[in-house]
Amino acid sequence: MTDSHANAQPELFRHRDAGPAKRFVAVPGGDLHIYDSVSRCTRCALCAPACPTYRLRPDENSSGRGRNQAVKMAIEGRINLRYGEAGLEEVVSSCTLCGACTSACPSAIKTVEHVLEARRALGLAVRGGLGGMLLSRLAMSGPESEKLISYLILLSKAGVPQAVSACGLASLLRSGWLGRAGRLLAEGRLKTLRSLLAARPAPAGNETPKALYFLSCGENYLAPEAGLDTLRLLERFVGRVPVLDCGCCGAQSYYFGRLEDARAAALRFMDACDAASGEEELPVYSGCSFCVNHLRNMEQLFIDDDANRARARRMADRVRHSSRGIVAGMESSGAPRQLAFSPGRMSFHGAPSLTRGEDNPSLSLLRLFFGEGRVQELEGDVCLGACQGHYISSPALNRELVLRKVRAIASGRGEIAVCDDAFTCVQIAAGLKKYYPHCRAEHISSVVLRVLGAADAGKN
Amino acid sequence: MFVKDRLSPVREELSRAAGRGNFREDNASLALHSYDFGMARARPEAVFRVSSESQLARIVALLGRDGLQFLPRGAGTNLCAGCAPLKGGVVLDMQGFNRILEVDTAAGYALVEPGVRLSDLNAQLNAEGWCFGPDPLSADFCTIGGMAAENSCGPGYLRYGSFSSWLLEMNAVLPDGSLAEWKRGAPGPDLPGFFCRSEGTLAIATRFKLRIEKMPPDYAAVLCVFPEGAGAFDACSELAALGFLPSFLEGYDSADSMGMEDGEVTLLYGLAGIDAELLPKVHSVFSAHGGKCSAANGYDGLASLKAKYLFGKNSITGFAPTVLSQAVCVPPGRAKEAYFALRGVSAEFDTRSRFSFRPGDGTICAYLLFDERSRSESLYAKRASFGVIKASTALGGCVLGEQGIGVDRRFFVAWCCTAETVALLGRIKAAADPLNLLNPEKIIPVTIPREEDVADVRPPLFPVTSQTKALADEIARRSSKSVRSVPCGMGTALSPEVLKTRGAQPLSTLPLAGIVELDELNMTVTVGAGMTVGELLRRLEAKGFTAVFGKCPGTVGGAIARGALSLPPDCFLGARLILPDGAIVDLGGSGLKGGVGYQVLRLLWGSWGAFGLIAHVTLRIFRQDAPLPEQISWPSPPRCYEPEPFLVPIKAAFDPRNLFSPWIFKGAGVFK
Fold first, then answer.
1. Between chains, do B31 and A69 touch, taking CB under 8 Å as contact?
2. Which chain A residues contact residue B24 at CB under 8 A?
3. Where does residue A458 rank: exposed (0-12), middle (13-18), buried (19+ CB within 10 A)?
4. Which residues of B fall within a CB distance of 8 Å from A59?
5. Which of A181, A239, B390, B466 has the most crowded CB, counting CB atoms within 10 A?
6. B500 exposure class (CB count in 10 Å sphere: 0-12, 13-18, 19+)
7. B518 to chain A nearest CA, in Å?
């Protein structure tokens, strides 16, 4: 050990897509070299009970502490990156990237960033092949990628990727994930949210926009009706909310290691927001918690780009889940709350908040609307890793997580599993359909809107 | 460069025994099982995930056969590197033992496996209105097995005691792979109690039967911020003098006061049951000492106060990359003095620190904050940790056994214990684990300092009385002549006629009558073992105190040796024991949480004098109007019984020639 480690060369990576975003971690109070960031872990294990993979498999390799220590030891050379560490790959691949550990950590250590860094160093990033092509297309502007994705959805509904996977051809193409991706895409809709919005009449009047609604991929392809419900709720409680249709937020690209695509998507998002809101700096709402979490962490992408970094930081403060806007609007407008009836025995399943001390806005909305005690605690904070394709990259673990969640819902005789993003909704729905069809999964916007509609009808 | 692969001869067998996927040798897994929350680290040679007793027994037997070290590991949250495999070998990951097997509220027990997290157990119990008493702050992530290993208590110690008070029965795998089942109340000493605080060095538990109790219906808590630490300690002392027994008492200094002489402290004080009605009095005492209070009702209220003020941004681990925890226990009456002394130590060694404390039981924990990547910071922190122990032992305290000794604190055991006591601990370990394969190199100091080097740091003990010395000399004389003996008091249990038929000579403890020290401030009494129980209770009553004894005839020493009393483990604090060879050892301590290393006191319970002559006993006392801990009556064990196989070599560690109460064990092939 030396007194000064400022000049230490704990270079984790030497691959071609290098950049400061890969060696430093943005934390409140300043950037930390990744070695310093990961060394802040005191091994207290406060993160362990919060981690979904640890709760599933109590094991140091599946905990936030274990992942931080693995990265630290890899930097220190105690785990050798060069010679292919299957164990280390498993440790970092199994992470759902939910950030629950960061929320629980007294030092708010950004374990997710360390894991992503390690994945890139281990070569787990998706660079080429079919997967790389699809990710790069997804990261492009929405309308440009929609055609391709719609074709893929159609093919998936016809079972083509699944058949290719089943016959072994996918293995030859080194695309073993194709079958799993096909099963996910088969849940997609041919009539996207974009097309539903296009068919909507233009809003009457010249009301000043109060916020922007970000059209996320999840809502667009997997839950367009939920997206429409989100917009309707925002319009009811916030005011005029123009749609921000600028393509993918870049989360998938970021999580799969395609940093340039992720930066391009982020810049496109910021440009679109600025163009749409002008001087106002309107809040930007999205019905997808994963998009929100990624966009609020955009600063990490521009760690060496001061101008865009400042923009990203300002933008992060503007991006919120739609539930937050709806709650604020309901509170200020005196909307009905604590309704006498609820649509059924509800449990909420959402991504843990990345910000310590901040309540999940969707849970707050449910409590405001239906009252305390009406929402069951049924492992709702266990993340399925849906957004970052856990279903595709770690299918066995994902299956166990979904099954655990379905078991919890069944044990509480849940009737509605309320979600705040489309990916989680689709996965839980698939699990419920197979193991506990008495319960259905629904997006929070759809639940709230339906009950409001019933309340309005009752009043009339 | 060339590392011997010790596993290769047995790899295939072990792999079959462990099952697919449960045997890991990859570099990452080994690295991730080399540490816990303590300082020392060491890499194992393999990691096994075990989830059944038979699987564990098979693996242990195989490892023992090939001389491979092994150690059990739960969540790995202990603060003393108890899970660091210093000699290599195998880490047995016990987190697969995570089932709550049974909860019987009618009979008042829960049957759990060691890998069950305390929070999960409490969640299930609380849902039915029941609870498990000990509630350490690591409840969310520590396991029941880990709690047993460290004999955890938590901020509710004054009311609920420690883990051993709640343990009824247990199953274990011994170092040779054999199975054991120990029950409190079974013939012989209290083996479940003895297991607690053994830190996984004597046996590996596979199942616990725990006592549970109904949650008191009412609970009230007050969070108080004092501008200075002195006020907090004075307020707690005043409440203790009034007879308050909190269900939760924990304080810590605020971050802003780091490095200063004194500063703001926050105290969380909880009262359960009918005591909750007394909260306004607590409020007024705190306010009189300068505290600003906010109150919360109910268990939810306590939980939210705990979450808000003890975790999250106030958690000590948020302040530095490396935290060296050094916890001590001093007599409660000197807690304030110790707190300021320890603050002085961290200032003296220029080490950032924070402190948490429990004024009621004298626990103070110094969290030394540094970056282990810096050599100078590490050196200062280590020196400060020595300074903390030194300062506390000078005030009659010692290392806190509850946080474990492990590796990080084993050096200090030699400071707190005499050479004879350390030697006894070593013999106990050797008796239970002759090959020294189960979690070796823990607890027992590797080096013994010279007596003159520790004379000024060892806790001051009361001097050996002339009567004790005379008895010790007599015992040594008899030992040299291989004369069989049996300690006896008034002879209420062992009549002289019985002794004659057994060929043993009595050793009377009657000269050891009398109260050696009644410490009203620290609520302890030290008495000679020859004092009668009735006389002790009378003398205490005259001063307004009582001890937790049932009515029984005979002497104090005799009552303990017979196991006749419903004395909770946490009320039997210390003893001076004369071994069958005449050596004098001091066990436990004089404080409420005295003692480090093995809970040898539990071996004396129901021992019928087979392990030595109890010369003096230190007990916890209570004010007459104070609520008393739960008392459970156990049948007195018989004078002669078939011993647990585990116990036979343990007896030999005390009495190799079976000179004391030689008839105690019966059965073929038993140590005679």
1. yes
2. 87
3. exposed
4. 49, 93, 95
5. A181
6. exposed
7. 40
Residue that is written with structure tokens 């680290």 in the block: B41
- Which residue type does A437 have? P
Asked if A3's CB is within 8 angstroms of B376's CB, the reply is yes
Query: Are B160 and B578 spatial neighbours (Cβ–Cβ below 8 Å)?
Result: no
In 3D space, the residue among A314, A349, A327, A370 whose CA is nearest the CA of residue A98 turns out to be: A349
Task: Tell me how far CA of residue A7 lies from CA of A3, A12, B31, B153, B374, in angstroms.
Answer: 11, 14, 25, 45, 13
Cα separation, B430 vs A194, whole angstroms: 75
- Of A415, A405, A426, the C-alpha closest to A342 is A415
- B23: chain A residues, CB-CB within 8 Å: none
- Give the minimum alpha-carbon distance from B31 to chain A in angstroms, rounded to a whole number: 7
- Cα B517 to Cα A67: distance, rounded to the nearest angstrom: 53
The pLDDT tens digits of the residues spanning B497-548 come to: 666 666 788 888 888 889 999 988 888 999 999 999 999 999 999 999 988 8
**What is the nearest CA distance from A185 to chain B, expressed in angstroms?**
32
Secondary structure letter of residue B653 according to DSSP: H
Structure ipTM: 0.90
Enumerate residue ranges in chain A where pLDDT < 50: 1-21, 354-357
> What does the alpha-carbon distance between residue A170 and residue A179 come to, in Å, rounded to a whole number?
8
Q: What is the pTM of this model?
A: 0.91
Identity of the residue in B119, B373, B374 whose CB atom sits nearest the CB atom of A49: B119
Q: Is B35 on the interface with A (CB under 8 A)?
A: yes
User: What letter would DSSP give residue B582?
Assistant: S
Q: CA B541 to CA B283: how far, in whole Å?
A: 30
pLDDT digits (tens, 9 = 90+) for A201-226: 876 677 888 999 999 988 998 899 99
With an 8 Å Cβ cutoff, is A60 touching chain B?
yes
For residue B152, which amino acid is it?
S
Tell me how many degrees the CA angle B128-B130-B135 measures, rounded to the nearest 5: 130
Beta bridge partners of A142: none
Alpha-helix residue ranges (DSSP H) falling in A5-141: 34-39, 52-56, 64-75, 86-93, 100-104, 111-121, 129-138
DSSP-derived letter for residue A421 is S
Two tokens, residue B414: 């030699």
What is the Cα–Cα distance from B644 to B542, expressed in whole angstroms?
43
Amino acid identity for residue A328 in this structure: A
DSSP A171-240: HHTT-TTHHHHHHHHTT--SS-HHHHHHHSPPPPS-PPP--EEE--HIIIII-HHHHHHHHHHHHHHT--
Distance from CA of B485 to the nearest CA of A (A): 51
Q: Which residues contact A160 (CB under 8 A, 6 or more apart)?
A: A182
Identify from B20, B25, B26, B32 which residue to disrupt to test chain A contact, counting A C-beta atoms within 10 A and taking the largest count.
Answer: B32
Distance CA B8, CA B465 (A): 58
* Residues of chain B positioned with their CB less than 8 A from the CB of A105: 318
Angstrom distance (rounded) from CA B642 to CA B188: 9
Closest CA to A262 of A206, A293, A300: A300
- Sequence length of chain A is 460
